[in-house]
């Protein structure tokens, strides 16, 4: 069994076939469902790019957006738990996981 994909204390969950549980993505961000290994709470882990190498400009933009989200404190907005950009932990943003339909489903 392969080692789980981890970002600091946050572990990416896997589907029944062993693949990472991807919640969604775009050309600039990939979002995984995960869990906080310290608390067991579900989390969403965002990483820049779509799995390949990310250039310095894209990484910088990702970090600026993640740090801006970290400043938001509202009961209707998922709380940012950790933002990291390091060689050892990787570049990621871990947030509270909110179960429910995607925003696009509600709009439709």
Detailed description of the structure:
This protein is an alpha+beta fold and about 110 residues long. It contains two helices and seven strands. Strands 1, 2, 3, 4, 5, 6 and 7 form a seven-stranded antiparallel sheet that branches. A hairpin with a 2-residue loop joins strand 1 (about 5) and strand 2 (about 10). The longest helix is centred in the middle third of the chain and has 15 residues, at about 55-70. The protein is globular, with a radius of gyration of 14 Å.
Which features characterize this protein?
single chain, 2 helices, 35% strand, globular
What is this structure, in a nutshell?
The chain is of the alpha+beta class and 108 residues long. The chain is 19% helix and 35% strand.
For the termini, the CA-CA separation is 40 Å
Uncertain residue ranges = none
Strand percent estimate? 35-45%
Class based on secondary structure composition and strand pairing: alpha+beta
| Number of helices, counting only DSSP H or I runs of 4 residues or more | 2
Shape category: globular
Strands, count: 7
Output the radius of gyration: 14 Å
Order of helices and strands: EEEEEHEEH
Q: Give the averaged pLDDT, no decimals.
A: 89
The level of helicity is: 10-25%
Largest sheet: 7 strands, antiparallel
Topology (elements, then pairings):
Elements: E1 6-7, E2 10-12, E3 22-25, E4 29-36, E5 42-48, H1 56-70, E6 80-86, E7 90-96, H2 103-107
Antiparallel strand pairs: 1-2, 2-4, 3-4, 4-5, 5-7, 6-7
């Amino acid at each position: 069994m392969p080692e789980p994909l981890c970002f600091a204390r946050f572990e990416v969950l896997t589907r029944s076939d062993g693949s990472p549980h991807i919640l969604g993505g775009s050309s600039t961000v990939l979002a995984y469902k995960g869990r906080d290994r310290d608390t067991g709470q579900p989390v969403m882990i965002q990483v820049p790019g779509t799995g390949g190498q990310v250039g310095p400009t894209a990484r910088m933009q990702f970090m600026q957006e993640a740090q801006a989200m970290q400043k938001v404190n509202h009961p209707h907005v998922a709380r940012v738990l950790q933002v990291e950009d390091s060689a050892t932990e990787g570049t990621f943003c871990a947030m509270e996981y909110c179960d429910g339909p995607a925003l696009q489903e509600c709009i439709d």
